[in-house]
Amino acid sequence: MELGIFNYSNRVCSSNLNFKRKLKEDEKPKMEADMNKAFNYLGIKNRALIIHGSVYPDSKDGAKNTHNNAPLIRNHYIGTPYRQRDFNKTAKMHGFNCIQLGPNGELCKGDNSPYRASIYAKNPLFLDYGEMTTDKYANILSKKDIDEINIKPKKSGKSYEMSDFDEAKEVSRILTHKAYENYESKLAKGDINAQKLNKEFDNFKENNKNWIEKYAIFHVLSDIHGTDNFHNWDNPIDKHLITQKKNNVKANDRYELIKQRSKDDINEYMFTQFLIDKQEKADKAEREKDGIKYIGDLLVGFSYADEWAHEDAFKSGWKIGAEFGGPCNSPQIWGNPLPDPDKLFNEDGSLGESGKLLYNKVLKATENVENVRVDNVMGLVDPYVYKADTVHMITAVDNGQSYSIADRGKLNGGNLSSKPEVDSDGNYLKVLHNIVIPALKENGINPKEVVWENLGEQTDAFKQVFEREEQLPGIILPTGGRTQELCFDWAPVRDKKTGEIKKNAEGKEIWEQSVQKPDWSLIGSHDNMPTFKYLNQGWIYDSNGGGYGWMPAYLGGYLNPDPKKADEKDRMISDIQNNPRKRLKAKYAELMRGTQNIQVTFSDWLAIDKTYNPRDNSSDTWKARVSEDYNDRYHDNLITEKAPVMNMPELVGMAVNAKAGMMVAKGLKPREEAYAEANPIMDSMKHWEEVLKEPES
Description:
This protein has 697 residues and is of the alpha/beta class.
């Protein structure tokens, strides 16, 4: 259904942009304070902007970090989450108080998905080279070194740029090698700053000795074999080196040979990991000064390096995927190894080999962030598993397009709770309580505030653990249905007189949803198309086809519940019916009136006409990126409406009006009192809504 609402085919912007004024310096803290006041009134504690590290914009020429005056020189071909003070402060001014990143691990060779990244090794593509030109890094790079390699690509002229992973990896390879060579040279000459850096490096190696050497050796072997998919290596000893070296003399000799022969390569790999760790910790310290919180991402999978280095921790022959969600709703064959259920716990209840791996995985994902998103929590409770050697691919056709999908009938797949031959003791059902939650608490993260991604299929076994036993918040998608005004947790039903928990005829405790729960609401995540593209999807106009939550009567009524303001409700319903852009704004405002925590994607906020992860194996997957001049384009789009960027004060103002009306409609407050509290907030939102659209004077 093509409505022609936005001119997608003409995404290339004119070189003569009609830029509108950005806020003046003295206005920025005032708008931020007013936005916070409005969100506090709405009861929305966390407002997360979803933007993965690679999506961040490039730094402008000559830009410097205002904390330490170091030049901002990034890998021009990909974004980085480090030292993004200007972008993060802009987001904070618009009401976002946390940033939800993707996994920040080192990528597999030939796979740019952050959800196949390493759980231990960090992504060297995120390094900021400008820091390395300073004394703190012993000046191991010069501006000349960087400029010769890191050649800035031409601008696309679109409202977004695209990451170039191949170029980014080549720039990273050359510059990290140059940095290591310069470090070694300066250290040999007795450079004082290099000696200080060396002490830090030694401490890093000591603190990370449980993994760093193994991963460095894997890096060397993957170069030797031309791939990091160790399953395809010809040398059987290399393929199982870590497992065999404990009891096999040949394997141990091979390990020691690689260590000696590739000593410099191994040390360089560890040095690069040290640089990333150093920058990540420094970035956290800077963000604390600015009040910017990062939400990390605990991926459900593992990289080839993880699997190779911890081979004994995984169940041979079994993989983790998802039963639905692939092309034509086929199973998703992720190829992720399954941590061995029999090695999660020892007989005395302590953590076994796979249990320790999962525990350390959580610690690593949360070490330099303030919160975390847990990817596919089903995979930590009752994952869908399948036999790797039974995967057969068939061709399926949907809307005239052919897809290669897994043959469901030959997968031998199912959720772990239905596979006693794989998890005979039901150990996986204990992972949340005995491994994940304790690890979160060790790093100071409250499990009740975590973003638990519980979307998709949910088994009864999962619901029992996640909702009833652990009583954890989940994610609500208001895309097809209503946003719940209140979300409830499970609690036992008690006798009003005795206080005892009631039981059913079978003697089991009776529970009900009765306690308010801090769920997270979002319309779309990094996996979805930009929300404004839903306006060209026929299903949102069909109340019987899942589009009830987009219906004019529902949105108009939800946002105008005061019975004495029926005329405003009718006007909004009419506007939504006749103007798709008004429907979109109403949907965004509904999100702001939802749960205690919300998420908004970068593509929605800035109206970027590109799906970050279309899940169709296209060449553009994971590449969409915010343009360097995003702020100029944002303000231009507010007035020209060339793209439906989110005017946050306008949307929040609509939500405030809705809450005040709801208080009146439910009799929670007298009308005068309710609006006396809300009107000043709505006035401030109206003020900033208009200021953002003012032309430059």
